[in-house]
Amino acid sequence: MALKLLKSLFARNKGRDALAPLYRAVVAEARQPHWYRDGKVADTMDGRFEMVTALTALAIVRLDAAGADGRVPAVMLTEIFVDDMDGQLRQEGVGDLVVGKHIGRMMAALGGRMEAYRTGLEGEDLEEALVRNLYRTEHPGDAALAHGATSLRAFWQRLEATPLDALLAGEIR
User: Fold this and answer.
1) Containing domain of residue 37, as a range?
2) Distance from CA of residue 152 to its chain's centroid?
3) CA triplet 92, 138, 27: central angle to 5 degrees?
4) Dihedral (CA of 56, 58, 61, 63) sign
5) Where in 23-162 does DSSP place strands (E)?
6) Number of domains within the chain
7) Within a domain: residue 9?
8) Measured between alpha carbons, how far is 73 from 69 in angstroms, rounded to an integer?
9) Is residue 160 left, alpha or beta, with left meaning phi > 0 and alpha meaning psi from -120 to 50?
């Protein structure tokens, strides 16, 4: 019984390790200066969290769209996101007693962003979703909002154009 549990844990970590390049690519994209300079995303801990969350949400939506082949990777990418956020909170000095609450809120935020951005990309209300989420209800100005929406759509198009195998390897075209 214990051997079976250990094998499943190591297999899970191996799968998650394989997705680390994808998560690193998403985070690298979220760190691009244009989001903060031209898109006026707040260059704060909250703003950077929102940017990473937005792009991670789109990557998970893309994996989900791949059907059965993308389901496990989508879960693993979510777990990598949670682990990263947990580490970030601890680095900022958040104690063990409240980390779980923060992670719960972050998971709810990720799920909400996935739905909001998926719906926004399918219709015409992406800008509304961006103001509500990425900009935390503060309208950044028309030019910044247009930049954010255009850039998010372009990132989504790149995700869609990337074959699943390449995406899983962290190559976003």
Assistant:
1) 15-168
2) 12
3) 45
4) negative
5) none
6) 1
7) no
8) 8
9) alpha
